[in-house]
Amino acid sequence: MHLFLICGIRCTADPPVAAPAYPEPMDAEVRYLNLRTGITVPCFIHGDAGKEPVLLLHAWGESSGIFDRLIPELAGFTVYAPDLRGQGLADKPEDGYSLAQQAEDAAAILEALNVPRAYVLGSSSGGYVAQQLAVVHPEKVAALVLVGAPLTLHRRPPFADEVDTLTDPIDEAWIRDSLAWYPLEHDVPHWYIEDRVRDGVAMPAHAWKRILYGLFEATPPTESGTIQAPTLVLWGAKDRLLPWRDQEAMAESIQDSVLKIYPDVGHLVLWECPEQVAEDTTAFLTALGPLT
Question: Within 10 Å of residue 25's Cβ, how many Cβ atoms?
């Protein structure tokens, strides 16, 4: 079944210039996971063990902090938000950045958490990794939520030439300039953007380059296998990076999928309207019923 929906959205920007002081819940922790893939990653865990698990996968150049405005809205789930290889506070080895290896890291994260099966939400290129995970480890993925995620990255992007020139330490001005690759249609809190700048500066040049190469050198997941998991695709109609035809093709390639279009949102769906993403995610996953 394929559903195509155009919906109104709820997008708000927080007024403070600093990150809001969310009360630290008793059921939240950061756990460092030693993965069978040879690296250690931190994972923010929110919610008690009795709730359905959701694994959040962030995009290239970010960290689990990208989900700071989403996680408080996912109160009905136990949320696992790791920093991925080469980014945030995760280990940053010289290699291991192919799409297949990134998906294997995600599988290893679930294993280290003793979570045999989870819902998986991926933002932008994190959604590409989520698709690969669903193809190679279908037993681990109960459902997918793809937020501004690509059908294919199997082509060299125009900004790859800039990335090729990066050296350590990463220039903060370049990080700020790179945000122009993804124009925003809605206001985003200043603190949130500053956090993303810090994410970018903290990454070594080799991680910037090799994660990108791993993404665009890979065979697209929907071409290498079949996604069997029920899937919600969320896409901003003003996305200048990912065309509508690709989103339509991705939904058509997944037997049990729903494509929701946010009319006045750009590529960075999660940045612009986390409340709406949380609302649609919660409705979609709840309708599937409990994991078995």
Answer: 12
Residue-wise DSSP of 49-103: TTSEEEEEEPPTT--GGGGTTTGGG-TTEEEEEEPPTTSTTS---SS--SHHHHH
- Per residue in 36-64, pLDDT tens? 999 999 999 999 878 999 999 999 999 99
Cβ-count burial of 239 within 10 angstroms (0-12 exposed, 13-18 middle, 19+ buried)? buried
- Token readout for 66 is 């990208």
Percent of the chain's residues with pLDDT above 90: 84
Give mean pLDDT, residues 204-208: 98
Rounded Cα distance between 7 and 9, Å, is: 6
252, amino acid identity: E
Burial of 177 (0-12, 13-18, 19+ CB in 10 A): exposed
Range of the domain at 278: 2-287
How many domains are there within the chain? 1
Instruction: Please tell me the pTM assigned to this model.
Output: 0.93
Establish if 292 belongs to a structural domain: no
Question: How buried is residue 247: exposed, middle or buried, by Cβ count under 10 Å (0-12/13-18/19+)?
Answer: buried
Write down the residue that tokens 């109160």 correspond to. 75
> What CATH number is given to the structural domain containing 121?
3.40.50.1820
CB 5 within 8 A of CB 259: yes
CA angle in degrees (0–180, nearest 5) for 156-159-160: 50
Query: 205-216 and 99-112 helices cross at what angle (nearest 10)?
Result: 110
Please give the average per-residue pLDDT across 28-43, as a whole number.
97
Q: For strand 77-82 and strand 231-236, is the pairing parallel, antiparallel, or unpaired?
A: unpaired
